[in-house]
Design brief:
Layout: H1 3-9, E1 17-23, H2 30-39, H3 45-58, E2 60-67, H4 68-84, E3 90-95
Antiparallel strand pairs: 1-2, 1-3
Helix pairs in contact: 2-3
Subunit structure: Binds to the N-terminal domain of the chaperone ClpA.
GO molecular function: peptidase activity
Protein name: ATP-dependent Clp protease adapter protein ClpS
């Protein structure tokens, strides 16, 4: 087997990446969304405000790009924290 074939057999594939997309609703306060973006997605305040406004004006926004396991964990954290605070906030995963 030549070197190029051997090298290609040993290359690892990058895992697929997923967007965590937060959806707008008429009940969850904007400051709560900003807090979630800062606490769960580690966004600074300016970025969190911009993403929150995108969600508010466009109906949804991408909060981050992660491997499936991390994206799913963040989605679960958002939904659980929202429910604990009695908000219907939702987020979905979308394969990049």
């Amino acid at each position: 087997m030549d070197e190029t074939k051997a090298a290609s057999l040993h290359q690892t594939k990058k895992p697929p990446m997923y967007k965590v997309i937060m959806l707008n609703d008429d009940f969850t306060p904007m400051d709560f969304v900003v807090y979630i973006l800062e606490a769960i997605f580690q966004k600074n305040n300016d970025d969190a405000m911009q993403i929150m406004l995108d969600i508010h004006h466009n109906g949804s926004a991408n909060c981050g790009l992660y491997t499936y396991e991390i994206a799913e964990m963040k989605q679960t954290q958002v939904i659980q924290f929202a429910r604990q605070n009695q908000y219907p906030l939702q987020c979905i995963l979308e394969k990049e």
